[in-house]
Design a protein that fits this description.
About 45% of the residues lie in helices and about 20% in strands. It is built from 16 helices and 13 strands. The strands form three sheets. It has a five-stranded mixed sheet, with helices on both faces. A five-stranded mixed sheet has the order 7-10-11-12-13. α11 runs parallel beside α13 and α12 packs antiparallel against α13.
């Protein structure tokens, strides 16, 4: 569990930023509502022992502190003006506290804290090169990489130490808590043992969820795979199981599901009208409000999925290109862990035969509400997955159809990004899943 000496740091701010664009001098305006109000830091030894602290309030010389932020951290403008100092003075002392030997800086949600730091440096004409050699680490990302879900600092602290940490949202208390959990995350090792399963198949459409960009959350995918491949050790309920339990509790709602499963839509308008009609029936079925939400979500997904699948041929037949069907189930081997092969499997919608003899992959999306007007991240990843499976194809053409409206987008294979970014995340997902089953057998 040992690591190099490190500094945990934390800002309290006047509010939140209004955008998510990368921080530059040109985009700094999005941080006008997110100004530094306090900066705290804590130095830890290489074995996680608290050695020293730094704590400073920053004067709000040219900005206001939102009431919502005051309610969280308790620093009013009057107090900050009375007890604080200008950012430049605080920054100089902070750099002295960090010193020449400590290059590892840790925060929970480090992207936020480093952006606040850099935005204030830009405003005060402080050279960003002064922090260029800092190694910023994020305990939130470290947790997400291992456990595939976010976690609040207080919850994580209690999971590790069994007690709450005091004065949450006090920047000094927050960075001390962050500094204490950091070495535990750094030293976490997974249990990987034989699980008696020769192969685990991940659907090509689920790859986006496995790497954190799909609509389905990663924990939901883990639950589905766990139930499929080790039902004897799975003790929970999948999201689908929970929805069916709610639906089966009411005879009238069971009939609504049967209606949804059998409905055949010719157009996007048809499916939207059916969604509204069945929603109305669910709302008057006598279910509890929370169960109504669950039932609606399941019915909507059933209708939308069936609409897309059943209208695939129609969209393909009206396309001007020469499209052919391909019933092959293509595969991509991700990794092998303790005798279990983790493999992606999927079937493509169509193959386009081009005049020059080349082939283009075709992915069809029948929209239920409107054309998106662009390729979503999860759709791009789905196309990249298929492109990696079909070695001889360089491009994927994604077609989106809404009623009589249609758009198409050409996506080029990006093997470098696949290899450097996607595959490591897929392998991490497989390790996480295998570790969970290893601990249950």
């Amino acid at each position: 569990m040992s690591c190099m000496q490190y500094i945990a740091f934390d800002f309290e701010t006047s509010g939140l930023p209004v955008g998510r664009r990368p921080l530059t001098p040109e985009t700094i305006g999005q941080y006008d509502t997110c100004r530094a109000v306090s900066l705290s830091a804590a130095r830890f030894s290489n074995r996680g022992r608290l050695m020293d602290t730094f704590d400073a309030i920053i004067q709000p010389l040219d900005f206001e502190i939102s009431q919502g932020s005051i309610d969280i951290h308790g620093i009013t403008k009057d107090r900050a003006m009375r007890d604080g100092r200008p950012f430049t003075e605080v920054f100089i002392d902070f750099m002295k506290f960090v010193g020449p030997r400590s290059r590892n800086l840790v925060a929970h949600n480090a992207q936020f804290d480093t952006s606040v730091l850099k935005s204030e440096m830009i405003r005060n004409n402080i050279d960003l090169n002064l922090i260029e050699d800092f190694n910023f680490r994020c305990t939130l990302n470290m947790y997400k990489e291992r456990f595939l879900k976010p976690i609040k600092l207080g919850v994580l602290y209690k999971e590790l130490f069994g007690v709450d940490f005091e004065n949450a949202h006090n920047s000094l208390a927050d960075c001390i808590a962050c500094g204490r959990v950091y070495p535990y995350l750094l030293g976490h090792e997974r249990t990987l043992k034989p699980i008696g399963v020769p192969k685990v198949i991940i659907g090509a459409s689920s790859v986006a969820s496995a790497v954190g960009v799909g609509f389905k959350r990663m924990p939901e995918l883990v639950e589905e795979l766990w139930k499929k491949y080790s039902p004897q050790t799975f003790e929970g309920q999948t999201k689908n199981d929970k929805a069916l339990e709610v639906i089966n509790s009411s005879e009238s709602v069971k009939k609504i599901l049967v209606d949804a499963e059998g409905f055949k839509s010719d157009t996007s308008t048809d499916v939207n009208q059916k969604v509204r009609a069945l929603y109305h029936q669910i709302e008057h079925s006598g279910l509890e409000p929370k169960d109504i939400v669950v039932a609606k979500d399941h019915i909507r997904k059933t209708l939308f999925t069936n609409h897309g699948t059943r209208n695939e041929d129609k969209t393909a037949d009206t396309d001007a290109a020469n499209l052919i069907e391909d019933d092959t189930f293509y595969t991509y081997d991700v990794c092998t862990i303790e005798g279990t092969l983790y493999q992606i499997v999927g079937r493509v919608d169509r193959i386009q035969l081009n005049e020059d003899g080349s082939r283009t992959l075709v992915e069809i999306k029948n929209r239920a509400n409107k054309l998106f007007g662009r390729v979503r991240d999860y759709e791009n990843l789905q196309c990249q997955t298929y492109l990696q499976m079909l070695k001889d194809i360089q491009y994927c053409r994604l077609i989106e159809q809404y009623n009589d409206e249609k758009k198409a987008y050409l996506i080029e294979k990006d093997t470098e990004k696949w290899t450097s970014e996607v595959v490591p995340k897929l392998q991490n997902f497989c390790e996480h899943f295998h570790s969970m089953l290893s601990e249950s057998v």
